[in-house]
Design goal:
The complex is a heterodimer. By secondary structure, chain A is mainly α. Chain A is built from 8 helices and 1 strand. In chain B, the strands form 10 sheets. An 8-stranded mixed sheet of chain B has the order 7-6-25-24-23-8-9-22. Classes of the chains: A mainly alpha, B alpha/beta.
Chain lengths: 230, 1251
């Protein structure tokens, strides 16, 4: 097995296993560490702008990746979305939200590194994960010129190959060969992206699992009963 | 089971709905709640308290979980007060609640530690075959070796050692010192026994047994109000806080109730709801000012001027303009106002001299016993001079007349003591009153009504009552003509009118006048329920005794002292050691040998840290022209030498010779008994072969050699003149910025051109926290915290006795103080067997207050045998000499048993004796007996801490009704009045340690104290003096307005006069770099802080987090602005004494002209190097130097006699001024560098030499 096959055939499963099992174990065993570790109390600064920019950008990108990569090719065509249209949406949405996330993320990164109070309370993992996310983001943005090149050539092949590769992973038929001809920048970006999943349970990233969407539909009053309903 | 699985119930989450779907019922996992339950779950709750000189003395629940203390909480089970009085609860403050942090904090001392270099030296000597004592001697004999470890004191370098090794080293040092220099070169310093009595007693018992000296603390801390012994012959007695509630008018000055009396402050706010008026006096807007109806922002250090002016108003309106019947009766019976004073010719006029005595009259008015000590009043009934009951002459040598009943002692006929002879007088004399206000006359002549009296000698003398003199001294016009009397309150030229006081204090005359009038009016209506709550802030000035006397005068004029809800309420610390009588025998080893060695620490440190060499205050400048001035030209230190020579004050060491050798020498020369040995010493003193140690204090023969500090932070907080301690006593890196020179002019103290450094061979610190004292010690021993030992605790603020309890066993290798000193005693005994054996020691004891020796020097005339070239007489003109046999090898066996003198000699306190045989037998059963064969076999055991607690309580009248009965019986005999009703209801009570662990117990009324425990009145000072007619323990038996000792008159303090702050001149010597830049010259005020001291320490993490995280100085906004200081900037305070660094707190609260650095801010957290000294930036006392006051040295004269922590010099430091300047952030140097040989050699700041 060469490195390519390991990275794009085995590593995704390692990353996803650690991500899922790690998250479950941490949730079960370390309830008190399950939190976002907000440092807003120590330094407000431009947090309202930077945090929102970052989170809007990142969440949109995450959604974009999920829809774009996990939707079977047939569905797009069935819906009348041409490959080129898909490519253009990916490029534009990626650029816009990527830049939002990059702006917010850079501001957060500067604050995390150079605000004395915030820096003092930061763990090494806090500094690491933010830096890693930013690198992944920059790598992702760096793929856009290449994608534009593909688009200009009218060639959605790379995009389709990437989606098929992701789906091959999900279908448990890993096919690293799909990535053989893809530009290196994509591969590096993929490696960084997978690594985010790998380290996810060991960082503050776990707060993603507990996004408080429940509040949107929550009744006014919740009573936790001592009675057994079984 | 699993948080994750439990949550996978998306469709089954809602069990029921209610309120139309606005509410839902779920059965979500509730395990998370357990976290909060576990936080407060515990295995046991133990009652303990905090032994940190906190007047709160609160009872606490200590919660223990898994063998660790998890938290503490206030106890709420105090016995109720009574129906019309609020209860004591809640007691306990945030500082106390944070103490458990220390048990497991990084400051905790976990193992015995020793300076690495010393250990290397010691081990090397031991390896070469020497035994421990020889090894120690070898290190001390080699100047180079000694310097190796002394020069790095304060610079870290500690290593771990074992208990066996470390106790051996301490014991070896003690044995060597006793042999080579004398036992009185070993000194122990530990303060405030009341905060943990057994722990104090541990060290003092060990030291007393080996002949070491215990240093006083109350006077050294400057918390002792010298005015109290002067006025009442009482160290200090004050009302419990509940008594504030009985008051209807309160003036508060110098005591910050909500901050330093937190658990008691509620009584002050509650009494306002009852309608009491509260007046606050403070230069800054201190926390207590918010309680008040009126805040008088008074210039710092001028308090007495304001109180004298209030006295002026009260005296004029309630004694002269009209005669208030209650005040008249009180003044006649309980004060010295009717006492007759002789006048002495002074130029064309007169000055006040000594009290008239029975012995001045023909036939001594029939008095044969002590007629020199019986003062005289004029009886209105018989129209003659009589000696009334109660003066000190009746206290000793006879029974039954020492009481305050208004009777002629000779006939026991009722008398009416006359206050003033103004309606009846033959003459008016012009009397000069000493006065000290700048730019005003030094002697103010005023007309006083006088009588002529024919003396036994045939001469005629002029006499006046204290009252008539006192009225004149207040500047009140009585229509007798003459000058210096006020035409009105608005007369600003005459002291002590309100207008004059406004000039001095800055307080509006109208406010002073109104407050004085209201105070007296209220007292007149309520029979004395006017109160002054006062404290350290005004007691730390050089002339603190006058500040306090000005208040006491006002209180006595208004009949407040001894009345519930009235009187003085002086609070500084936990000075009330309630079971004192039961404790003292154990603490000072009186059960095995008497007397112990005691020393007044202020004089001790003033001399041994060589602060006298730098003295800027000239005693001559303090003298009054009205005095005889026999000692003109003497320095403050010279006065102290004279005082030790005359047996007034103690001295340690006693003489420039080893007292063991003196006895051996005397015996060799043929002396067979104590008298013979004493005579030998007297001869040597007289022919100059021997002298008191202070006369040549820098001679190595007279150096202190071993110092043990426990329960204290001597170096880090209480070392006034901290840098001098470092320089001379310890030989460490120091910041003294000047060289001494003033001491060269001394007449009695020998000057050595090069000042000694590193006088101490060994300094041991026993603590659970590494503070600055530990940092400068050679050995640090780990002790148990307040939650890890069994001990006793009492305070003056409430009447309960509390235990400290061992909630968890002492952490790591620590042990309780009792066990530590027990192990030192054991190691000592082993080495002593070979090197010491049994020795006879000679103890020089000053004439003690509350003993017949207080009648040593009649009339207050000074008999200085050395100056006058006459033979000294022990007990009269020099110290009492007592031979004490020390069986050194049996020190340990004696330590662990209650010794035989308790049955042979019994027990005593404050001049009354009783028998303790019954208690001794009971203790054999209660504590069991010592099983170890030897000298103490079969005696009551003191091996365990709880046994010691029970022994104390069994022998004290406060905790054993039977002992109360015996002691009151003894006093009843003396006074001739039956006092038994005071304790009768509790005759059968015996309080044990287990009792007080179950619930706080109220103590039993005892003759040790002047207040009573009762169902009808709160505890208040002086109550039994007024209501039981027990005399104050003074010359006249009454409260004194007047002091007639020669030295008092020399210094112009016969009557209370206003004396302002001194100019210490230290602010004139600062580095040129500081002088060249913008700076402020500020008064250096060091009050108590909000976040530390008394109930915790300043370095607790939580408290540091609450405020600035390190040292800070409060400044006025305007002052700060004037030199560009912003809040939180670094500043340096510097003067000749040294420098200290801190952050500036800029506040409107502080007036211009003063800097406030809270007490107990020390060197161990966030202290950078000082820019002026280049040494670690100092503590609050780095810029101070202690000064001694000659009038506080007086001895052998009734209430002006020495007793431990009772009278003597007090460590005042508040008159100091500093130069304060801003330090830029980039100039902050944390001194975190390697110790190079150059750095090690540079002990002094660059440019400061060896003087």
């Amino acid at each position: 097995m060469n490195l390519h096959n390991f990275l794009y055939g085995v590593y995704p499963y390692i990353a996803l296993s650690v991500f899922l099992l790690g998250s479950i174990l941490r949730f079960d065993r370390e309830q008190y560490t399950w939190k976002s570790d907000s440092s807003q109390l120590l330094s407000k600064g431009n947090l309202r702008v930077s945090s929102n920019l970052f989170h809007i950008g990142v969440l949109a990108i995450f959604g974009g990746h999920a829809v774009g990569l996990l939707t079977p090719h047939g569905w797009f065509t069935a819906l009348g979305v041409s490959d080129m249209a898909h490519q253009m949406v990916a490029i534009w949405a990626g650029t816009i939200f990527g830049l939002l996330a990059l702006t917010g993320g850079a501001m957060l990164w500067l604050r995390r590194m150079f605000n004395a109070r915030v820096s003092a309370v930061s763990r090494r993992t806090d500094k690491f994960i933010l830096s890693w996310l930013l690198l992944t983001l920059i790598l992702g943005l760096s793929t856009i010129p290449v994608s534009i090149g593909h688009a200009n050539e009218g060639n959605p092949g790379v995009m389709i190959a990437l989606a098929e590769w992701v789906q091959s992973i999900v279908y448990l038929h890993p096919n690293p060969a799909l990535l053989a001809e893809v530009d290196t920048i994509f591969k590096v970006h993929l490696f960084f992206g997978m690594t985010v999943f790998l380290v996810f349970p060991f960082t503050r990233m776990v707060h993603v699992w507990s996004a408080p969407f429940g509040y949107l539909g929550r009744p006014y009053q919740i009573v936790r009963s001592k009675r057994s309903f079984r | 089971m699993s948080h994750f699985l439990d949550r996978l119930k998306f469709f089954d989450k809602v069990k029921e709905t209610f309120s139309n779907g606005h509410g839902i019922v779920t059965n979500e996992d509730r395990q998370w709640e357990d976290a909060y339950r576990h936080r407060w779950q515990h295995d046991k709750v133990v009652r303990s308290t905090h032994g940190v000189n906190c007047t709160g003395g609160c009872s606490w629940k200590i919660f223990v979980k898994n063998g660790l203390v998890s938290f503490e909480m206030q106890q709420t089970d105090y016995p109720r007060t009574r129906d019309d009085l609020p209860d004591h609860e809640p007691r306990g403050c945030q500082r106390g609640a944070s103490f458990s942090w220390y048990l497991y904090s990084p400051h905790r001392i976990k193992h015995p530690m020793i300076r690495g270099r010393l250990l290397d030296l010691y081990r090397a000597e031991r390896k070469s075959g020497k035994d421990p004592v020889e090894a120690w001697a070898a290190i001390q004999a080699d100047e180079k070796k000694r310097k190796q470890y002394t020069a790095v004191r304060g610079l870290g370098g500690f290593v771990r050692t074992s208990w066996e090794e470390v106790t051996e080293i301490i014991a070896a040092a003690n044995v060597h010192t006793i042999n080579k220099w004398g036992p009185d070169r070993i000194y122990g310093f530990s303060p405030i026994p009341a905060m943990s009595m057994i722990s104090y007693a541990a060290g003092s018992r060990y030291l007393s047994m080996i002949g070491g000296a215990c240093g006083s603390f109350y006077d050294w801390y400057c918390d002792l109000p010298a005015a109290s012994p002067q006025t009442w012959g009482e160290q200090t007695d004050v009302p419990e806080s509940a008594d504030w509630y009985n008051s209807t008018y309160i003036i508060i000055t110098g005591a910050n109730l909500p901050m330093t009396r937190t658990p008691d402050a509620h009584f002050a706010s509650e009494v306002r709801y009852k309608g009491a008026k509260i007046v606050a006096m403070a230069p800054d807007y201190a926390e207590f000012c918010k309680f008040s109806d009126l805040w008088m922002p008074i210039r710092q250090g001028t308090d007495s001027a304001a109180f004298l002016a209030m006295g002026h108003v009260a005296l004029k309106e309630y004694y002269i303009d009209r005669q208030d019947p209650y005040f008249q009766e009180y003044a006649r019976k309980y004060t010295d106002l009717p006492m007759q004073v002789m006048l002495r010719q002074h130029g064309d006029a007169w000055v006040s001299d000594r009290f008239l005595r029975a012995s001045d009259f023909d036939g001594a008015l029939g008095e044969t016993n002590n007629p020199d000590w019986k003062t005289i009043v004029y009886d209105e009934a018989s129209r003659s001079f009589v000696a009334p009951n109660g003066s000190i002459g009746f206290r000793w040598g006879e029974d039954g007349k020492w009481n305050l009943l208004p009777k002629n002692a000779a006939t026991q006929a009722e008398i009416v003591a006359e206050l003033s002879c103004i309606g009846d007088h033959a003459e008016v004399a012009s009397v000069g009153f000493p006065h000290f206000n700048q730019d005003e006359d030094e002697l103010l002549f005023r007309n006083v009504p006088v009588r002529k009296v024919k003396l036994a000698s045939g001469e005629e003398a002029l006499v006046a009552s204290v009252f008539d003199l006192q009225v004149a001294q207040y500047g009140i016009d009585r229509g007798l003509g003459g000058g210096n009397v006020a035409q009105s309150y608005a007369d600003a030229d005459v002291a002590y009118t309100p207008a004059w006081a406004e000039k001095v204090t800055g307080v509006k005359a109208a406010d002073i006048e109104r407050t004085g009038r209201e105070f007296a009016y209220n007292a007149s209506k309520t029979k004395g329920k006017s109160m002054v709550i006062m404290g350290a802030a005004i007691n730390h000035w050089y002339h603190n005794d006058l500040a306090y006397r000005s208040i006491m005068n006002l209180l006595h004029m208004c009949g407040c002292v001894g009345q519930t809800g009235g009187g003085w309420a002086h609070y500084v610390g936990q000075e009330k050691l309630r079971p004192q009588a039961g404790w003292a025998p154990i603490a000072f080893g009186l059960d095995w040998q008497r007397p112990p060695r005691h020393m007044n620490s202020t004089s001790y440190w003033y001399f041994h840290t060589d602060q006298w060499r730098y003295e800027t205050v000239k005693a001559d400048d303090l003298l009054s022209p009205a005095g005889k001035g026999k000692y003109k030209g003497y320095s403050l230190a010279d006065y102290n030498v004279a005082a030790t020579r005359m047996g007034w004050l103690p001295s340690m060491p006693h003489w420039n010779a080893n007292p063991l050798n003196l006895v051996a020498e005397a015996e060799k020369a043929g002396a067979t008994d104590e008298a013979g040995i004493a005579q030998h010493v007297v001869d040597k003193l007289q022919n100059g072969e021997l002298d008191v140690s202070f006369a040549d204090v820098d001679n190595p023969v007279n150096w202190p050699r071993n110092l043990i500090v426990w329960r204290a932070n001597l170096i880090g907080t209480s070392a006034k003149g901290h840098e001098y301690f470092l320089k001379h006593l310890l030989g460490a890196q120091n910041g003294v910025l000047q060289e001494g020179g003033a001491g060269r002019d001394n007449q009695e103290v020998k000057w050595h051109e090069n000042a000694p450094t590193a006088k101490l061979d060994l300094m041991v610190d026993i603590n659970f926290r590494l503070n600055s004292t530990g940092a400068y010690s050679d050995i640090i021993l780990p002790t148990a915290t307040w939650y890890e030992k069994n001990d006793l605790n009492t305070t003056d603020m409430h009447p309960f006795i509390h235990p400290l309890s061992e909630a968890v066993s002492p952490g790591w290798e620590s042990k309780s103080d009792w066990q530590i000193f027990k192990s030192i005693a054991k190691a000592f005994s082993t080495l002593a067997e070979k090197h010491l054996g049994t020795k006879k020691d000679l103890v020089a004891l000053p004439m003690q207050h509350d003993s017949a020796a207080e009648l040593a020097q009649p009339f207050g005339y000074v008999t200085d045998w050395k100056k006058e070239g006459i033979a000294p007489v022990p007990g009269k003109t020099m110290p009492i000499l007592k031979v004490v046999e020390r069986d050194y090898a049996n020190t340990y066996k004696k330590f662990i048993a209650l010794g035989p003198l308790m049955t042979k000699l019994g027990n005593n306190i404050k001049g009354i004796d009783w028998n303790t045989e019954q208690e001794y037998e009971e203790l054999k059963k209660c504590n069991y007996t010592v099983k170890e064969p030897g000298i103490s076999f079969g005696m009551p055991s003191l091996e365990e801490d709880i046994g010691v607690c029970d022994a104390v309580m069994r022998m004290a009248p406060e905790t054993n009704g039977e002992v109360a009965h015996k002691s009151w019986s003894a006093l009843s005999k003396k006074t001739g009045i039956d006092h038994h009703h005071l304790y009768a209801g509790r005759h059968e009570d015996k309080i044990t340690f287990k009792d007080i662990q179950a619930q706080p117990r109220k103590i039993i009324t005892a003759p040790t104290w002047s207040g009573i425990e009762s169902e009808t009145v709160s505890y208040t000072a002086g109550y039994t003096n007024i209501h039981e007619h027990i005399p104050f323990r003074t010359l006249t038996g009454r409260a004194h307005f007047y002091q007639d000792h020669e030295w008092m008159l020399d210094f112009g303090e016969g009557f209370c006069a206003y004396r302002g702050p001194l100019d210490m001149k230290a602010q004139n010597t600062v580095p040129a770099a500081v002088r060249a830049k913008p700076h402020l010259v500020l008064s250096w005020i060091t009050p108590h802080s909000k976040w530390g001291i008394h109930s915790s320490y300043q370095d607790t993490l939580r408290m540091l987090t609450l405020f600035r995280g390190g040292p800070y100085v409060w400044l006025s906004e305007t002052d700060a602005q004037s030199i560009g200081i912003q809040d939180n900037d670094w500043v340096e305070a510097v003067n000749a004494n040294g420098a200290t660094m801190a952050r500036a707190v800029v506040s409107q609260r502080v007036p211009r002209g003063m800097a406030m650095m809270y007490h107990a801010q020390e060197k161990n957290v966030n202290v950078p190097g000082s820019v002026s000294t280049n040494k670690r930036g100092g503590i609050l006392n780095s810029v101070t130097r202690v000064i001694v006051k000659p009038t506080n040295m007086i001895g052998g004269y009734a209430q002006l006699s020495y007793s431990f922590n009772y009278y003597g010099t007090v460590g005042c430091q508040r008159d100091e001024q500093v130069v304060l300047h801003k330090v830029e952030d980039q100039d902050i140097d944390w001194l975190e560098r390697e110790l190079t040989p150059e750095r090690e050699a540079q002990l002094n700041p660059v440019g400061v030499g060896s003087r």
